[in-house]
C-alpha cells in the first residue's frame, strides 16, 4: 500500500502508466482512489496517472484540526514534489475540482491544465443550507441518516430509480465512513470563496457541469467559465452531480479530448 509523507501527513497514492505527461485525479469530498479505477485503466494507456486520497479521505491520515482547500493544495504540491512530478494536468470532480482551482491560483507552476467538473468557486445560500444539513447528519454519526440526507443531492432522481443495487452498495459504504474526518472535510468548506481570484488562473481549463446537478448547479460552472480566461464549458445533459458514475463515457470522452487538444497545441 504506497504511502508517502507530504506536508506533515501520510498520503495514500497510486501511480500507474508510462506516459510523458502526468494526469492527477482529485477526489470528491466523500471519494477515494477507488472511484477513479475506470479512469486509471483507460487513461494510463497514454498518460502517467496519479490517484491519491487527500487528508481525511480513504487510506490517508486523518489528523485533527482544520482542513481547508488551501491545505489540500499544499498537500498536493508537496506530494508532487515527493514523487518528483513537476507539472501535471489536474482533473477534479466537485471538491477535487475546487482543489484543482486552488492549485491553479496558489501553485500555478505545478499546473499544466485543469479539468473542473461539478465544482463551485463560492458558496451561495442554498448550497450553504445543504452543507449545514450534511454536517448535522454527520455529527450524529448515523450512516443511514447521512445517506438519506446526502444521496439525493449527489445522484439524480432517474439514476437513483434505475440503479437500486448500486444505491444499496453506496449506503453500505456510508457505514464505513470516518465521520469525524467527514466533518473536518465539510466544516471549513462553508467558507470557500475564490471567485475573485479565478482570473489568476492562466492555464487551459475545461469546466464541466451536469444539467440536473442540484447540489452544485450549472450556474456555478458558468461563473467559473466566465472568470477563467479562454476556458471551455460543457454541460452534460440528463446527469446529476455524480457525473463520473452517471455518465462515465461522456466524462471520459470530454477529458480525453481536452487533453489531446493540449498535446496538439504543444506540438504546434
Please count the beta strands (DSSP E, at least 2 residues each): 8
Mean pLDDT: 97
Q: Please give the order of strands in the largest beta sheet.
A: 1-2-4-3-5-6-7-8
CATH fold-level topology: Rossmann fold
Fraction in beta strands: 15-25%
Output the CATH homologous superfamily: Alpha/Beta hydrolase fold, catalytic domain
* Sequence stretches where pLDDT stays below 50 over 5 or more residues: none
**What number of structural domains do the residues give?**
1
Regarding CATH, which class?
Answer: Alpha Beta
Q: Gyration radius, to the nearest Å?
A: 17 Å
Give the class from helix and strand content and strand pairing. Answer: alpha/beta
What is the ordering of alpha helices and beta strands?
Answer: EEEHEHEHEHHHHHEHEHH
Outline: globular
**Count of alpha and pi helical runs:** 11
Protein model, in words:
This protein is α/β, with parallel strands linked by helices and 268 residues long. The protein has a single domain, classed as Rossmann fold, CATH 3.40.50. The protein is 45% helix and 17% strand. It is built from eleven helices and eight strands. Strand 3 (22-26), helix 1 and strand 4 (48-52) form a beta-alpha-beta unit. Helix 2 (69-82) packs across helix 3 (95-106) and helix 4 (125-140) packs antiparallel against helix 8. The model has no long low-confidence stretch (mean pLDDT 97).
Sum up the structure in keywords:
eight-stranded mixed beta sheet; 11 helices; alpha/beta; about 270 residues; Rossmann fold
Amino acid at each position: 500500500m504506497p504511502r508517502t509523507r507530504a506536508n506533515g501527513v501520510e498520503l495514500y497514492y497510486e501511480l500507474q502508466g508510462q506516459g510523458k505527461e502526468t494526469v492527477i485525479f482529485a477526489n470528491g469530498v466523500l471519494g477515494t482512489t477507488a472511484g477513479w479505477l475506470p479512469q486509471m485503466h483507460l487513461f494510463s494507456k497514454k498518460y502517467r496517472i496519479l490517484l491519491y486520497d487527500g487528508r481525511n479521505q480513504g487510506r490517508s491520515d486523518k489528523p485533527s484540526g482544520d482542513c481547508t482547500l488551501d491545505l489540500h493544495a499544499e498537500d498536493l504540491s508537496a506530494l508532487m514534489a515527493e514523487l518528483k512530478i513537476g507539472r501535471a494536468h489536474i482533473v477534479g470532480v466537485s471538491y477535487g475540482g475546487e482543489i484543482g482551482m486552488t492549485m491553479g491560483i496558489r501553485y500555478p507552476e505545478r499546473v499544466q491544465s485543469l479539468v473542473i467538473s461539478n465544482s463551485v468557486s463560492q458558496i451561495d445560500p442554498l448550497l450553504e443550507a445543504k452543507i449545514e444539513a450534511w454536517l448535522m447528519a454527520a455529527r450524529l454519526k448515523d450512516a443511514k441518516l447521512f445517506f438519506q440526507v446526502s444521496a439525493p443531492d449527489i445522484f439524480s432522481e432517474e439514476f437513483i430509480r434505475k440503479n437500486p443495487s448500486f444505491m444499496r452498495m453506496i449506503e453500505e459504504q456510508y457505514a464505513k465512513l470516518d465521520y469525524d474526518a467527514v466533518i473536518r472535510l465539510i466544516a471549513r468548506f462553508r467558507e470557500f470563496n475564490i471567485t475573485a481570484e479565478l482570473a489568476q488562473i492562466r492555464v487551459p481549463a475545461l469546466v464541466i457541469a451536469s444539467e440536473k446537478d442540484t447540489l452544485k448547479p450549472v450556474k456555478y460552472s458558468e461563473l467559473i467559465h466566465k472568470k477563467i480566461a479562454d476556458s471551455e464549458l460543457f454541460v452534460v445533459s440528463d446527469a446529476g452531480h455524480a457525473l463520473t458514475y452517471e455518465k462515465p463515457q461522456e466524462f471520459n470522452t470530454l477529458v480525453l479530448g481536452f487533453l489531446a487538444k493540449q498535446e496538439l497545441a504543444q506540438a504546434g
